[in-house]
Design goal:
This protein is an all-alpha fold. 84% of the residues lie in helices and 0% in strands. It contains three helices and no strands. Helix 1 packs antiparallel against helix 2 and helix 2 packs antiparallel against helix 3. It is elongated and about 60 Å long.
């Protein structure tokens, strides 16, 4: 445990940021799992409707600094490939 006041504050701030990042990552993973469940079940119409929302959740994770831009692009590309392979 830190003794210096500024170091104590950094610990508190880092804990808050960690919780925020965990929540954002968890939401993103949940949406991806929902999308993949629709793809594996073969429900193309519902998967097509859910795809833009899933992409927006991934983009919001990028804008909040949880994911890097290229990682998000890679994830979205993979999801799009799975959606297009259903046809």
């Amino acid at each position: 445990m830190p003794n210096i006041k500024s170091a104590k504050k950094r610990v508190l701030v880092i804990d808050k940021k960690t919780e925020r990042n965990k929540a954002i990552k968890s939401e993103m993973k949940t949406e991806i799992k929902k999308f993949l469940a629709l793809v594996t079940s073969g429900d193309k119409e519902a998967a097509t409707k859910l795809f833009p929302y899933t992409c927006s959740v991934i983009d919001s994770a990028v804008s909040k600094g949880v994911l890097k831009k290229n990682t998000a692009a890679n994830k979205k590309s993979g999801l799009a490939k799975k959606l297009n392979a259903m046809a």
